[in-house]
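Chain X:
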Amino acid sequence: MGKLTLYGIDGSPPVRSVLLTLKALGLDFEYKIVNLREGEHLKPEFLKINPLHTVPALEDDGFYLSDSHAINSYLVSKYGKDDSLYPKDLQKKAIVDQRLHYDSSAVTSAGLAIIRPIIFQDNWEIAQAKIDALDAVYKNLNLFLEKGDYLAGNNLTIVDFHLAAALTGLVVFLAVDSTKYPKLAEWIERVKKLPYYEEANGTAAAPFVALLKSKNFTIV
């Protein structure tokens, strides 16, 4: 196996989804922090790795890849002992891909609409419509979970890593109501019991989550 290097920052949900995948696969890798506030992602040496200057980025023995969805499917396809985390069966794979697209579109859009003004504009007023959009995401995730213990059925897949990482910060703004969305609440607790979860997502996300909780945001 070639040398694996992950470039990222702990506060990023997509980066943490890759950390979860790497840990689930039991792979050895080097983790290099990219300080976005200092503009390290815009420096020539990083632009050679990822011209789009985003994290995460993966280096696999001279091969470079960006976008967490592409990275995680690549890692499982190349290094997985089996295909359970990203199935080869076309129909099972199609369900996983559909959920991944939902994450990259609806979930990411809902999350960025809330978090981007906070991080980049120091604006802690959140429109009720944005919270409603997040609630709609919870509703759909709960719907997905009616067909199994995990988001793409009865088996854990990379989709669960993506959504677990995303929701870690989003629940600060809208807690998951276990009465309203019981399947989603149960899934969150189920994923937290994974042996590598705390290291890859819990501890990694803690400073970012603490920052969000320390601020007095208002819903308007």
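Chain Y:
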Amino acid sequence: MACMHDHSCEDHDCSSNWSLYKHVDLSKIMQSCESGRFCVFGLATWYRALNEAVPGSVKSVFKAWQHRLNFSEGYLESNDGDPELLVFIPFTSDVKIKSISIVGGADGTSPSKMRAFINREGIDFSDAQSMQAVQEWDLAENMQGMLEYQTRYSKFQSVGNITLHFPDNFGGDTSQIYYIGFKGEATQLKRDVVATIVYELMPNPSDHKTKAETGGGSSHVE
């Protein structure tokens, strides 16, 4: 569901509502990935947008709400003749997402549909096309950034990462995105803390002697 802002932002501090860009973990953006997929190393995920024409350009779409129409900062664009984009977005802490705003390009290059997957790593186009999304939206051309798309809020709690799939646009040869904004709040739970806890809970075979190592005939880890 899309809705318009119902007040003038000259009288309200809209930027504070769209502050989750500060919690997007830009340090985990990888400039290239030889496999063409999101690359996952251990418990840390490094990513770029799949099918982006300029590797790493996805960084430019995460910015303060008041800068959403500053197109000089760069933009995300798909490869020519293929409008599909898939963007994996990790956060530095768990967040709760109430709304999403997308500012696309002109001349039919704005995405026309958006699908969201939560806390799923390593999704490629084949996965996205076959998996059930948590939520889907039909998008409108939103060059002024005044539309926001409400989430099913109960399903967007404890979001450590979100993957946004943009399967098509309004007829342009490429898809262009200038801004991706999230309205909501961040929790105090840090993603690296969660990863450390999970890692410590996982058994480490080197910490366990096997019967073979102690002279027994079995090599099972006890």
